[in-house]
Amino acid sequence: MAQNEKPGVGILSFFKWTDTFSLMCGVFGFLSVIRVVGGDFFLGAVFLAAAGVFDYIDGFATMRFSKPTEFGSYIDTVCDAAALAMAPAAFIYFYALGNFPEQAVFYLLVSVAVLCAGLLRLARYLVLAKQGLKSYVGLPITFNALVIPLLYLLSESSGINLFFLALVSAFLMVSEVKVKKFCI
To answer: Is there a contact between 145 and 55 (Cβ–Cβ < 8 Å)?
Structure first.
């Protein structure tokens, strides 16, 4: 132990192996943004979907092989904010900018709505989790990792920018719809 390090405050005293999956979610969200900014929307969609898979795996692994910790909850939420709120918002905006530039301002607003809904949903989740709520309220943000790649594929095949439908997802995230938690 380093001379100035206090026991129990080093990052490894908080970190559990299941937190690696949360970090991978964040990494793949970041990789998605890099690809999207570079104009490679297909790989951006693949990386975004991978972020969603890792977000699911972190919850599954924690519940199945470990136990939830406060640190794990926070690192999961921080990674979700980057990968499942920021990356989808960037995807929507840069896709419109590159393919439908006349719609860029509208899709900037859609992007901001998706980002804000995701962040609000995550914050509400933290508050309700501390209160012991056993179900999700609102669509889990992980669905952005499914919805955005799907809208991309549909937009590409139809030639119509369908990302305005992400507003439905944004609305459902901040709605009061109860969604049962599930782990396979």
So the answer is: yes
